[in-house]
Amino acid sequence: MTRSAVFAPFDIIEGDRKRGIVLVADHAHRELPEEYGDLGLPASEFDRHIAYDIGVEAVTRKLAALLGVPAVMARFSRLLIDPNRGEDDPTLIRQLYDGTVVPGNYPMTAEERERRLDRFYRPYHDAVGAMVASVAHESGRAPFIFSVHSFTPAMQGHVRPWHVGVLWDMDPRAPWPLIEQLAEGKSLVVGDNEPYDGALRGDTMFRHAIVNGFAHALIEIRQDLIGDEKGAGDWAERLAPIVDAINRRPDIHEVKQFGSRTGPV
């Protein structure tokens, strides 16, 4: 991990905004601001999936370069505060995560919770919102938002068989062709809303895509497949033509409201 007294809550990768694509990586980094130390955890915990999405930064940077499009990545560890949760979600700041107690998150005062929202969570989402608005303005059409995540091969004693999963709520425009194209070669086990359900009220896709009627998809890649430079590069090269093809579909850049399985939008 890195340490800095001046901590930026997000990274921006520049690209051609006229292409109409925004890449998002909520859990790309595991850094903590200097004043939080290690949240009372040993350094080894920051090598685990509980701290960040292993491999996602490399995949996102390579994918952005291949497509020539911009990306926004959160810089702080999800152990500090999880940007892919609603502000009222009980897992926004975890005190226990996959068997690990996080001492620096307990007890959590209302003042500290608000401080983390104001210093890290909200600036990140402001940056995502600004990028989405900028891409819409520069391209002159509704943007396509593509979110990159990764998942651990085993969770709470359960082995996960999927190589990749596509998470979505009600808007099928990007998820259906993404699932179909990933599954074409028959070599991948592709999860449809596996290993997680894509309907999560207040998460990044809800905030920036669903409520605006923008086409979107969230991909989860198994971490053992992208944990090194070669694996990350291979997956970026696999995804680039698929994302490009979806971006060219006539309905992708239209504003359409599909609602949410979580309730009224």
What does this structure look like?
The chain is α/β, with parallel strands linked by helices and 265 residues long. Helices cover 29% and strands 16% of the residues. The protein is built from 5 helices and 11 strands. The protein has helices at residues 56-67, 110-139, 175-183, 204-210, 229-247; strands at residues 10-13, 21-25, 71-74, 96-97, 100-101, 144-151, 154-155, 158-159, 164-167, 190-192, 216-222. The strands form 3 sheets. The protein has a 7-stranded mixed β-sheet, with helices on both faces. Strands 4-5 form a two-stranded antiparallel sheet. The N and C termini lie far apart (38 Å).
| Largest beta-sheet details | 7 strands, mixed
User: Which stretches are poorly predicted, pLDDT < 50 over at least 5 residues?
Assistant: none
Q: Give the SSE order as H and E letters.
A: EEHEEEHEEEEHEHEH
Structural class: alpha/beta
Strand content: 15-25%
Fraction of residues in helix: 25-40%
Strand order of the largest sheet: 1-3-2-6-11-9-10
Number of helices: 5
For the secondary structure, the number of strands is: 11
Terminal CA distance reads 38 Å
Mean pLDDT, to the nearest integer, reads: 96
Radius of gyration: 18 Å
State the shape.
Answer: globular
